[in-house]
Amino acid sequence: MEATHTAPRAARLDRARQAAPQVFERLRNAIIALELPPGAPLSRAVLAGQFGVSLTPVRDALMRLEEEGLVDVFPQHATVVSRIDISRAELAHFLRQALELEIVRLLAGNCDAALVVRLDQAIALQQQFAKAGDFEAFMAGDNDFHAQLYAAACKQELWTLVRSRSGHIDRLRRLHLPSPGKAQNIVRHHRLIARAIEAGDADAAQQHLRMHLSGTLSELDKIRSHHPEYLTD
Fold this sequence. Notes:
Elements: H1 2-32, H2 44-51, H3 55-67, E1 71-74, E2 78-81, E3 84-85, H4 86-109, H5 113-132, H6 135-152, H7 156-165, H8 167-176, H9 182-199, H10 202-214, H11 220-226, E4 231-232
Parallel strand pairs: 3-4
Antiparallel strand pairs: 1-2
Helix pairs in contact: 1-3, 2-3, 4-8, 4-9, 4-10, 5-6, 5-9, 6-7, 9-10
Keywords: DNA-binding, Transcription, Transcription regulation
Protein name: GntR family transcriptional regulator
InterPro entries: GntR_C (IPR011711), TF_FadR/GntR_C (IPR008920), Tscrpt_reg_HTH_GntR (IPR000524), WH-like_DNA-bd_sf (IPR036388), WH_DNA-bd_sf (IPR036390)
């Protein structure tokens, strides 16, 4: 009898473990895209109903989001999407720049023609998304371009680390992306980085990357003036 009761319970736990990463990714994407803006309340019961899962994977997903600083949990009270923390955004920028400057130097020193083809394909897709005004697809394409760099340098685990620390600066980028010319500037910088890697010019690759990554933080005052309720220092 005990085994009979244990098997269904184990099956439920296994389903919950499998569902939690999916719930996490969907919630995280919605937060980064500002579909769930800073301050938005997150009810476990409502989310469980929306996703068609039990409370357990929702709880686990919210715990992971709290670890990334994307939600604030007030015990016995509420869970809400966090405001964009400028200090966290600046730390993520520092981490990403330090890693990617070394990555593009490494790649420029040992150029792989297949990598250049993949980068150009990613850039072409981004150009299409920019023309269509599809900002969510554009940001996914932006991430794909950079993920290609980490993968080519055999540093995929570092990309996972960067992504887990980039929620705040990614939301800043999403706020800034609709600004006139912003998407085209990103595409232009990606082209310049790809061409520098192709030419084996490590200094130029680093220069273009540094300009590319600093674009959003350099416009912080403007972003803050348009969305003061979303940001915190």
